[in-house]
Amino acid sequence: METSGGIRASLAGRYASALFDLARDERQIEAVSQSLSKLKAALAESADLKALVSSPLVGRQAAAQALAATAGTLGLDQTTSNFIAVLARNGRLSQLGNTIRIFETLAAEHRGESTAEVVSARPLDDSQIAALKAQLGARVGRDIRIDARVDPTILGGLVVRLGSQMIDASIRTKLNSLATAMKG
Question: Is the pTM above the cut of 0.85?
Answer without folding.
Answer: no
